[in-house]
Write a structure and sequence with these properties.
- The complex is a heterodimer.
- By secondary structure, chain A is of the alpha/beta class.
- Chain A has 11 helices and 7 strands.
- Chain A has a single domain, classed as Rossmann fold.
- In chain A, strands 1-2-3-7-6 form a 5-stranded parallel beta sheet, sandwiched between helices. Chain A has a two-stranded antiparallel sheet with strand order 4-5.
- The longest helix of chain A has 22 residues.
- Chain A is globular, with a radius of gyration of 18 Å.
- Chain B has 11 helices and 12 strands.
- In chain B, the strands form 2 sheets. Chain B has a 7-stranded mixed beta sheet with strand order 2-1-3-4-6-5-10, sandwiched between helices. Chain B has a 5-stranded mixed beta sheet with strand order 7-9-8-11-12, with helices on both faces.
- By secondary structure, chain B is an alpha/beta fold.
- Chain B folds into 2 domains: 151 residues, 3-Layer(aba) Sandwich (Rossmann fold); 128 residues, Rossmann fold (3-Layer(aba) Sandwich), CATH 3.40.50.920.
- Classes of the chains: A alpha/beta, B alpha/beta.
- The interface between A and B is medium-sized, with 29 and 27 residues.
């Protein structure tokens, strides 16, 4: 598409289309992981509907001009789910789809974690948990200083909120009245080694963000109509409270055996039989939706 | 020895050193007037940029006591086209935020500037938590970061102003216990070490307060012993002036480095690595802080205790020349 084609906020997308997109992200993810030999399945799956909502509905983008100063920013705090983002950015035209064939190879611009210097459409690099809310707050302050009305979205995991720097950023965001900053917590209840609640309890998340001066929306992170409504009705970027969307999700959602054993599929590789089962399960659901 | 007292290191008025005028704060205000993309941030250090805040209040971002956040915020600001100067106390600057600096600033090639005030032993009496003697060892492993260490106030202003044209991350390490080295602002060429004096007997290289010590020692060596020293201001620690170093080392065969930093990882290490790689047979020594637990005390006394004095530099130089 031409460089100056703007994808506006609130683009047409039905709930069924959103769910369909999320399942497409899941299918693309398992193919990319199969190619690389190892990958983060279950946490990519818990965020699939969130990523689909942002990129096909909520974000104001100009894929032909990735550094367009007025674009909405998206930071993938939980950088280990970038596998689910690469096919979306290719689909929107940030780079040719055949780049995905390089995934996981030396010299590839697209890898397990995103690098802003390598891939167009990546607003900031990530991988070290806890940094991106600070970086996003910096972008939001820059928006205020330069008089631009873009929003900055940061997707974090719930385990990531154990990092102290997140709360330094949360304090700064309300102190500087950053209503143009939205954190989305993919609250799937697990970090790499087990349940978040057992490792270091971070609840009650809603009350914690409220206490830090944030507007809180606590939602089902897989429910398409709720997601559309929540992101359509975000407070104006000119408003004065940063927004926390706490998305209650299920790690491994969309694949029954992964949702039952989310921890086992945090990092792994499907064997041939499992791969076929997963493709069949997701494809059947997509066809049913199409039918 | 006259008793030395702790001075108020947080006051740029009471402290009687060449840094009294707060050149890093002065320079960023000048820079800010030239380029409206320049913003400043500080973690409970707003006094160091008081003049900037007075002139450009909307372009100062107070971060509270949260240094890690200040560096990542700056990375976000820089990615949106601004040029942030982050002020910190050195022990809580590069040392505390090195991972944020590496991952958010350095790897992403963002033009953030970290200005570390009160480096080395400047806060001596407050205890070793307040020392910063390992920061250069860390900063120089960052493969996109320019590392600068001004010799005095004029040098600090010149180096700060030179950052206007740098589109890369910069770490500026401000020493406080420095004497006057330059009568007027020196003209630095990127990555080059100004030669303060020419001689063929020994090479003396300093950065920060070490530059002034090298110059003073060279004067004493010449007047007392007729030893002629090549003296360099190693204001650039990354990139550093490899050509000047090797040419001088080859000429004199003896190199003494002087720095308010650990013997590990700083200028002494840079010199040793470089001459070894070049295959030069050169006698080396360092005036620097030992690789062991450091004493606590008033900076002026600590400098004497650890030999960061012209007389000790001259004594070490004589030993090298005689060996």
């Amino acid at each position: 598409m031409p460089a100056d084609t703007t994808l506006e906020r609130g683009r047409p997308l039905t709930g069924a289309e959103l769910s369909h997109r999320a399942d497409w992200i899941r299918l693309q993810t398992i193919d990319l992981i199969a190619q690389a030999g190892l990958g983060h399945y279950s946490s990519t799956f818990s965020s699939a509907e969130l990523v689909a909502t942002l990129y096909y509905r909520a974000l104001r983008l100009r894929p032909g001009e990735p550094n367009w100063p007025d674009r909405d920013r998206f930071l993938l705090g939980k950088g280990h789910v970038a596998t689910g983002l690469w096919p979306v950015l290719a689909d929107l035209g940030y780079y040719p789809r055949d780049w995905l064939g390089q995934f996981g190879k030396v010299g590839s611009p697209v890898n397990d974690h995103p690098n802003m210097k390598l891939a167009p459409g990546i607003d900031f690099s990530s991988g070290s948990l806890g940094h991106n809310l600070s970086v996003g707050a910096g972008m939001a302050i820059a928006g205020r200083l330069t008089g631009r009305d873009y929003r900055t979205f940061v997707l974090t995991g719930d385990g990531e909120l154990q990092e102290g720097q997140v709360w330094e950023a949360a304090m700064a965001a309300s102190h500087y009245k950053l209503g143009n900053l939205v954190v989305i917590v993919d609250a799937n209840g697990f970090s790499g080694a087990g349940p978040t609640s057992q490792a270091m309890n971070i609840e009650p998340l809603g009350k914690r963000f409220e206490a830090f001066g944030w507007t809180v929306r606590e939602i089902d992170g897989h429910d398409a109509p709720t997601l559309l409504k929540t992101f359509d009705e975000l407070p104006d970027p000119a408003s004065e409270e940063p927004v926390a969307v706490i998305a209650r999700t299920r790690k491994g959602h969309g694949v029954e055996f992964m949702e039952k054993q989310p921890q086992a599929w945090h990092l792994g590789l499907l064997n041939a039989e499992q791969y076929a089962d997963v493709v069949a399960e997701i494809s059947a659901r997509m066809e049913l939706a199409n039918g | 020895m006259a008793e030395k007292k702790m001075v108020d290191v947080f006051s740029d008025v009471e402290r009687e050193t060449a840094m009294t005028a707060n050149p890093a704060g002065y320079a960023v205000t000048e820079l800010g007037a030239q380029d409206e993309r320049i913003v400043t941030l500080a973690a409970d250090m707003s006094n160091t940029v008081a003049e900037f805040i007075e002139k450009f209040p909307e372009r100062y971002i107070e971060c509270g006591i949260a240094e890690t956040n200040s560096v990542s915020l700056a990375a976000g600001l820089a990615s949106a086209g601004l040029i942030p100067y982050v002020y910190s106390m050195s022990p809580f600057g590069m040392l505390k935020t090195c991972e944020q600096w590496r991952t958010d600033v350095d790897y992403n090639h963002l033009p953030v500037r970290l200005v570390g005030r009160l480096s080395g032993l400047a806060m001596g009496y407050f205890g070793t938590s307040h020392y910063a003697v390992e920061d250069i060892a860390i900063a120089r492993t960052m493969n996109n970061t320019v590392v600068l260490s001004p010799a005095d106030a004029a040098s600090c202003v010149a180096l700060m102003m030179s950052t206007a044209s740098l589109e890369v991350p910069v770490y500026i390490r401000i020493a406080e216990g420095v004497g006057k080295v330059y009568d007027e602002a020196p003209e630095y060429e990127f990555g080059k070490w100004p030669r303060l004096r020419s001689g063929g007997d020994i090479t003396l290289i300093g950065h920060g307060m070490g530059t002034g010590l090298a110059a003073a020692a060279a004067e004493a060596l010449y007047s007392r012993d007729s030893i002629e020293a090549d003296v360099f201001d190693a204001a650039y620690l990354r990139p550093y002036d490899e050509a000047a170093l090797l040419a001088s080392a080859q000429k004199t065969g003896r190199v003494l480095t002087i720095e308010e930093h650990s013997v590990v990882g700083g200028l002494g290490t840079i010199v040793a690595e470089t001459v070894a790689r070049a295959g030069l047979s050169v006698r080396l020594d360092q005036v620097a802080l030992p690789d062991q637990d450091l004493e606590v005390g008033v900076p002026a006394e600590l400098y004497e205790y650890y030999g960061l004095t012209p007389s000790n530099v001259a004594a070490k130089a004589r030993n090298l020349v005689r060996r």
